[in-house]
Amino acid sequence: MSVYNAASDVANPGKGLRLCDIPVHDPFVVADAQSGFYYLYTSGGPQFNGMESWGVIAYKSRDLSEWEGPYVVFKIPEGIWAFPQHGVWAPEVHAYNGRYYLFATLHNHNRSLPEANAIPLKKHWRGTTIAVSDSLEGPFELLRTDAPVTPSSLMTLDGTLHVDEAGKPWMVYCHEWIQVVDGTVEAVPLSDDLSETIGEPVHLFRASEAAWDSAERTDGFDGAVYISDGCQLYRTKGDRLVMLWSSYEKGKYVQTIARSVSGKLEGPWEQLAPLVKEDSGHGMMFRTFEGDWMLILHRPFKMPDSRCKIYEMEETADSFEVIRPREDLHGA
User: Fold this and answer.
1) Would you identify the family this protein belongs to, as annotated (predicted)?
2) Which of 3.20.170.30, 3.30.700.30, 3.30.450.40, 2.115.10.20 would CATH assign to domain 80-227?
């Protein structure tokens, strides 16, 4: 176990922390009007946070400028389908039916999946799990321990909750490029208690459909690969359904956005111009207590250098646009 810096130490939560001090990957913010706190969730583990195994940590702030934490809100239990030492990706928390649900991608490198292509990277169990708590500060307990919620034959990541216009819950997730070469975004219907899927996955789009996506190369594979990450869905004031997601352009992470032509989850989806480049991505949006839209993402991609960056956003009738970076909140 090791601790990267004072802002990372779960054994000694601090106050007055700035975002420029806190190593964060895949940030997710919940603005809780009842408590008056913004909660920032990210993964925590033995490498940087002094934890014995991987889990999810949270920071909280009243003004998005000064933060306190980190606090452990979830630890991967022993004896479940995922291995506690193999990491947590993309934790996010959603209020749903009076409780709080944590979505997080877990891994088991020891359980192999069939080889589906010539990419010389191991295909193994990876998928999004869901845990529940009555508090935004946890502890969160898994709804199931025998398998991820996403289909166990698929190597998936970054699952998020979407409730459609009929009130039906879905998990929208990314299908890993390692398994399919051209990474996709897909959706699967969930039971009302979010504990299981109740239908087959629906294909939404491929990463290669973004005209700007220059494709990537990986050692030992002759073809191009396309990466899909970090899907998040929002409905505009003009009732248009849009999705944040991330991929790469010339080796650098990109925060982009897509829009459903039909206004429904099933699409078809059209790819819009990227929102932020500069090795930035895996963003999500939230409203401040004053009602303003903010985009939070990480930059650069590599930990422990990765930090949260916040952008003020403008909501139009059919999309969202970046107004300006908030360096007063995240630093230069």
Assistant:
1) Belongs to the glycosyl hydrolase 43 family.
2) 2.115.10.20
Q: What angle do CA 144, 138, 331 make, to 5 degrees?
A: 120
Q: By C-alpha distance, which of 278, 276, 280 is closest to 257? A: 276
Provide the terminal-to-terminal Cα distance of the chain, rounded to the nearest Å. 30
pLDDT in tens, 156-207: 999 999 999 999 999 999 999 999 999 999 999 999 999 999 999 999 999 9
Distance, C-alpha 198 to centroid of its chain: 23
Quick one: average pLDDT of 260-284? 97
User: pTM of the predicted model, to two decimals?
Assistant: 0.97
Instruction: Tell me the average pLDDT of the chain.
Output: 96
Burial pattern 1-20, b for ≥16 Cβ within 10 A else e, equals eebeeebbbbeebbeebbbe
Cα–Cα dist 6/8, whole Å:
5
Torsion 247-248-254-258 (CA) sign: negative
pLDDT, position 1 = 78
Please tell me what DSSP assigns to residue 76.
P
Distance CA 149, CA 161 (A): 12
CB 46 within 8 A of CB 92: no
| Cβ neighbours of residue 182 closer than 8 Å, sequence gap 6 or more | 206, 207, 208, 225, 226
Q: Of 19, 8, 12, which is closest to residue 63 (Cα–Cα)?
A: 19
State how far the Cα of 93 lies from the Cα of 38, in Å rounded to an integer: 12
What is the number of residues in the chain? 332
Select from 28, 288, 275 the least CA-distant residue to 160. Answer: 28
Assess contact for 103 and 114: CB atoms under 8 A: no
